[in-house]
Write a structure and sequence with these properties.
about 190 residues, about 70% helix
Length: about 190
């Protein structure tokens, strides 16, 4: 018997998350705290340290640009643009990831509006992150960065919600279809 009182392995062989809640809570809390710590540590870097890190990632698209446009190779304006894009993508992704863990915890703890709660948690942490940067040499807190952080969090929450909706529909479609079990008169073998 499954926890729903049904015979067999359950709907499509899946197990309810409640059977693994404790382990999943621990994993999600660890991932959430590690993500928050990583964000804090990256924001604690001085402007020069942050630039060096961004430069490493901006060199990849710059090399591709230089190959495609040898007459404009080494253009500092193009490199600056790639560096800016890399920084904004990093903002978006780090808070999207934070929202994933926060939404997961909100779902596990059965909070109302878990997707909104997870995104809001990430947006609030983004606020503290931008405030933190005000105290780091050469850094500044920017409303535009907060908006990008929040957009990442909201995007992650929306994608998670869509995944849940689709997976529930698929799971519900896995129920045996009784109509296929009925043999039509044409399919009956003569006796």
């Amino acid at each position: 018997r499954t926890h729903h009182g049904q015979e067999g392995a359950g709907r499509c062989g899946s197990r309810m998350i409640s059977e693994r809640k404790t382990g999943l809570k621990v994993i999600l809390w660890v991932l959430l705290v590690l993500n928050m710590a990583a964000i804090f540590l990256m924001s604690a870097r001085t402007a020069d340290e942050s630039t060096v890190q961004s430069d490493v990632f901006a060199e990849v698209p710059m090399a591709a640009y230089d190959s495609a446009h040898p007459e404009d190779a080494g253009n500092e304006d193009v490199f600056w643009l790639f560096q800016k894009i890399v920084r904004k993508i990093a903002h978006f992704l780090e808070f999207a990831e934070l929202a994933v863990w926060a939404v997961g915890l909100a779902v596990i703890y059965d909070l109302k509006l878990p997707y909104l709660t997870g995104a809001a948690f990430s947006a609030v942490y983004a606020t503290t992150d931008e405030l933190h940067q005000l105290f780091v040499p050469g850094r500044e807190g920017k409303v535009t960065d907060w908006l990008i952080d929040t957009a990442g969090a909201i995007t992650a929450a929306v994608i998670l919600r869509a995944i849940i909706i689709v997976s529930r529909k698929r799971r519900n479609n896995c129920k045996p279809d009784d109509s296929r079990a009925i043999i039509s008169p044409e399919q009956k073998k003569p006796e």
